[in-house]
Amino acid sequence: MTKKWWHDKVAYQIYPKSFYDSNGDGIGDLPGIIDKLDYLQDLGIDIIWLSPCYQSPLADQGYDISDYYRIDPRFGTMEDMERLIAEARRRDMYILMDLVVNHCSDEHEWFRKACEDPDGKYGNFFYLKKKTDGELPTNWRSYFGGPVWEDLPGTDRQYLHVFHKKQPDLNWENPELREEVYRNINWWLDKGLGGFRIDAIINIKKALPLRSYEPDRDDGLCGMHVMLQEAKGIGTFLSELRDRTFRQYDAFTVGEVFNEKAEEIPDFIGDDGYFSSMFDFNETMCGASDKGWYDARPVEPDDYKHRCFESQAKVGNIGFLSNIIENHDEPRGVSRYIPEGDCCTESKKMLAALNFMLRGLPFIYQGQELGMENMPFTSIEEIDDISTRDEYLVALEAGLTPAEALKAVSKYSRDNARTPMQWSDEANAGFTSGTPWLRVNPNYASINAKSQKDDPDSVYAFYKKLIALRKDPAYKETIVYGALKPAWEERHNLMAYYRKGDRTLFVIGNYQREEQEILLPGAYKKVLLNNYKEIAADGSRIRLHGYQVVILEM
Predict the structure, then answer these.
(1) What is the pLDDT of residues 463-491, one digit of tens each?
(2) Residue 165 to residue 147: CA distance in whole angstroms
(3) How far is CA 281 from CA 225, 260, 285, 325, 523, in A?
(4) 3-state DSSP: the chain helix, strand, coil percent, rounded to 5?
(5) pLDDT for res 28
(6) d(C-alpha 141, C-alpha 442), whole Å
(7) Nearest-CA neighbor of 322 among 287, 359, 353?
(8) C-alpha distances in angstroms, 282 versus 20, 264, 286?
(9) What is the DSSP letter of 505?
């Protein structure tokens, strides 16, 4: 593997709307992020990924972009963005923006012009089909529910949207469209961006000609994954994208890639890959059901372990995964991967270590370093997320009562991760002096940055130690580049693996509240990290407390 500047970095995702509000309007903003750069630097962060802050009507919280060259006034100005990039670089930190180019907003100039003249230049920027009475062009189901086809206003056409109806899909088969995309990417990289997180990129290639598939629900529609499995030739688009933009700037890119085949991994993240890295979503898809969120099953500790090891084995030393516990599209990881009733400081630290020490680039989502938890929603009216609202209707249609449907979708709602960042125990968790756009989690009085920052036993302090260990010159080579070898894979509720390089490290987590005894294969030299104050060891025999995790140098 060719070594790159970003291999030893630690990344942090910011959801700007919920991070920190500098002006009291209830919405987080770019000046607020600048105010908190020292907090992130103290934690040890190198790369900051911003969820979209481009101009947008926010139908899907900024993933519906109406102008790729402007900052939305809710978040600040272009001068604020330029200052953020400069202030980050002054601290040896890099800013990533979200690259959302599978679709734009229906308020984008391109789409407005397509409505005015569907047979003109901009009509070919989208997928347009003539309307047929009583029949859709295809029976695909949008990721947000319902058909992917919507009437093009004022015309006899329909347009394709695989996400929200206000997010028309861009036609990547059109070279003129691609040129516009590349021009915009390079415009941003010229401003000094470190790179991009690339949204929903697998969807840019459709299986042509467009056709219907076997329905998988009573609504007569089929999930998007069916079409995507048949789509061929995305590599042509992605290699051109890389060569025309990222490669020229040595930019870091991380792709939101689903359903990749094992043989395609070198193409995506090998030395000559389309992207620097791609997220590992294997764990987030565990327990999912085609029927909907209401039918999903809880993730068991052994499920989580096997999913992590499966991803690690599939990638091997081909390239770098970006490892996550949560992000803006997922519920809080501690509420998902820790058995119900067992969320505590020790279990949160255990989950942190087991994920952080995997081979790949660690991504921390805002508040994860504090152990922020899911929101206790009491009504569907409290939920802003369009995806959750759709899944609530799916649950009701399946026969659940409103209370049962709310409970089912609350576990997986994207709003769990979008509640305001919990900075302190002051009003509104110190996020804003105004009224927050989304209700603050009521547990902010006990879970907040101010109370944890100077507490050596806090979740925050443990994350800081994990980051420091990754950067320690004595262990960096092993943690960053060393091989990962699972241990005791079939042992129930125990996750353990070696990191082998110029040194040998052993990561062991007791994934249950009951104690568990292990017998090491040999003596250990040193305890590098432990989420308890002591380790109950008798030679090579160790008794692990509930949710104890240790990182040993062998």
Answers:
(1) 999 999 999 999 999 999 999 999 999 99
(2) 9
(3) 15, 11, 6, 9, 35
(4) 35, 20, 45
(5) 98
(6) 36
(7) 359
(8) 31, 16, 7
(9) E
Type and span of the H or E element at 449: helix 449-453
3-state secondary structure of 168: coil
**Encoded tokens for 52:** 């979209």
> Edge-to-edge, what's the strand order for the sheet holding 536-538?
516-519, 541-544, 536-538
Determine the residue type at 116.
E
CA–CA dist 317, 315 (Å, integer): 6
Separation CA 386–CA 426 (nearest Å): 30
Active-site entry in 98, 256, 330, 373: 256
Q: How confident is the model at residue 539 (pLDDT cuts 50, 70, 90)?
A: confident
Strands (E), 171-232: 195-198
pLDDT, position 336? 97
Q: Which listed residue (80, 199, 326, 385) is catalytic?
A: 199
Distance CA 69, CA 97 (A): 12
pLDDT tens-digit series, residues 184-240? 999 999 999 999 999 999 999 999 999 999 999 889 999 999 999 999 999 999 999
> At 200, is the secondary structure helix, strand, or coil?
coil
Alpha-carbon Rg for the chain, nearest whole angstrom, is 23
Q: Scan for tokens 């490669």, then name that residue.
A: 247
Which residues on adjacent β-strands are paired with residue 150? 159
Helix (H, G, I), strand (E, B) or coil at 376: coil
Question: Is the separation of the CB atoms in 170 and 102 below 8 Å?
Answer: yes
Tokens of 522: 């040999």
**Strand (E) or helix (H) holding 461:** helix 459-471
Beta bridge partners of 40: none
- Choose among 56, 315, 310: nearest CA to 199: 56
Q: Smallest Cα–Cα separation from 72: which of 107, 44, 123?
A: 107
DSSP label of 271: T
The torsion of the CA quartet 50, 56, 59, 60, rounded to 10 degrees, works out to -20
The CA distance from 65 to 87, in Å, is 25
Beta strands in 195-242 (DSSP E): 195-198
179 carries an active-site annotation: no
For residue 285, give every residue at least 6 positions away whose Cβ sits within 8 Å of its Cβ, in sequence order, or none.
none
d(C-alpha 517, C-alpha 444), whole Å: 36
- Please state whether the peptide bond connecting residue 118 to the residue before it is cis, i.e. omega within 30 degrees of 0: no
Q: How many CB atoms lie within 10 A of CB 186?
A: 16
| Cα 330 to Cα 328: distance, rounded to the nearest angstrom | 6
What is the rounded CA–CA span in Å between residue 156 and residue 106? 17
Tokens linked to 130: 């003539």
- Tokens representing residue 360 in the block: 């790949």
CB 334 within 8 A of CB 328: no
Beta-strand relationship, 54-55 and 149-151: unpaired
Please say whether the beta carbons of 323 and 360 come within 8 A: yes
Reply yes or no on whether 329 is catalytic. Answer: no
- Cα–Cα distance between 102 and 257 in angstroms, integer? 13
pLDDT the model gives residue 132: 86
Distance CA 107, CA 115 (A): 11
